[in-house]
Design brief:
mainly alpha; MetI-like fold; 2 domains; 12 helices
Amino acid sequence: MLRQYALKRLFVAIPSLLIASVIVFSLSRFIPGDVVTLMMEENQYAQDLEEMRAKLGLDRPIHVQYVHWMSRALQGDLGESLYTGRSVLSELGRRLPVSLELGAVALFFAVLLGVPIGIVSAVRQDSIKDYVSRSGAILGLSMPGFWLGTLVVVLPAVYWGWSPPIQYRAFETDPWGHLVQFLLPGFLLGIASAAAIMRLTRTQLLEVLRQDYVRTAWAKGLADRAVVLKHSLKNALIPVVTVFGIQVAQVLSGTVVFESIFGLPGMGRFLFDAISERDYPVIQGVNLVIVTTVVGVNLLVDLAYAWLDPRIRY
């Protein structure tokens, strides 16, 4: 039954990917003005106008362009960067691990902070801990990530003459320094996600704790830890898992800013530079990878539903 459920969700994900690929393909083509003319005027690429148009395939009908681009993408060919002259796929191969590592650290802090604080806040409802937790969550949701990142880099340098490392260190040359450089940006990037997860964990757990079967468990004399963690938490986590999948997309979008602030050569910074340079193939390739990652994560979230609540499989 689980296998059938997984196949059904996979079939649902395929049309989502196709629709997303059409959107990614269309973004640069439907912006106002002639994108090739803008690219040539702003960046002085070393091709004439018609040569650049032919290289990008813009001299063919729009549906032919999409089929050609998509067929190459399915074969692992995302084109070449107009700015660096290197393969987009090879550039992503170098930069994607950096973004994934930063995103993983951010999501780790989001879950590590959000779920336990949400549990404590629900179990100790209307206590000092609850009020402090809820206020902290509102504060975390209110502070823009780029503002936090800028403050953390600028203020210590102004007042104490110190700033966090903004020079990338490869794992091969400095393993410990490589790991440490992701902790601060990952923590800052994960604050908003932790706040959202905390608030939803608290709300859902409070709702579950009011159910009849939970009252029965308490009436039987079970310990608070067993009632909360064993009988209640699993049922309360289904909406939290949904929000976690949404937070993955938010974290991936946040890497664009934090990689630029902390000097990390990841996919987000690559996209930011490509937009600045109007590097057409890079923008398409990076967006396609991001969309595919988000759809894949949401597919895993759907499978997690079936594990948390077997009734969903039916």
